Amino acid sequence: MNAPFLMAVCPNCKRPVAAMEDRSVSCYDDEGPPCRATLMCCEECQEPFVVLQEALNGRDWDQPDLLWPNTTKALHQAIPLKIRKEFSEATQCFQAGQYTATAVMVRRVMEGVCQSHNATGTLFKALDDLHSRGLIDKRLLEWAHELRALGNDGAHFGGKPITRQDAEDALTLAEAVLNYMYVFTRQYEEFKQRRAKSVPPSEEGASNGSASTCESGPVGE
User: What's the pTM value of the predicted model, to 2 decimals?
Assistant: First the structure.
């Protein structure tokens, strides 16, 4: 991949920093394309940090996202990498006070959720498809539609203004949807599989037999 160096913004002093490619290591994710992590050090404040990039077309890398240090809580690894990156960008927009951009990015997160579950069509129809297939319940469907509508307001000129509280709520609801779709559902399925393997054969028949014996005839006969 042709990139002798890359530019990123120092998370500490907000200055642009350049790093050579030889400070990078490759990393892979089963859910997406190859990535690379690069160690950078700000020449101004001398603070180190690590950025993550995703391969685009076999030759180029996308824009770097801050990997470490990260003041926000990391999403669970069960959530696909591309969706985690979209959510990370939404969080960065919020931290920068760009609340309209936050709403738009959250809408992109919802689109990513639909695509990862092969729900096609408009976002409205795709969300309804997830509900009809039993992948989300009615409450989550309502949440997702509210996030879609908020993102529409942010994406269209002249739409309703997006407040800080709107953006913060959108991030919270989006994270709840992601955890339900990818984390809790997976943990529940793993729990059921473990239980199926560990629970011994039912002793219900033996218990019933014992009860019958105890109930046969009056006491003292």
Answer: 0.59
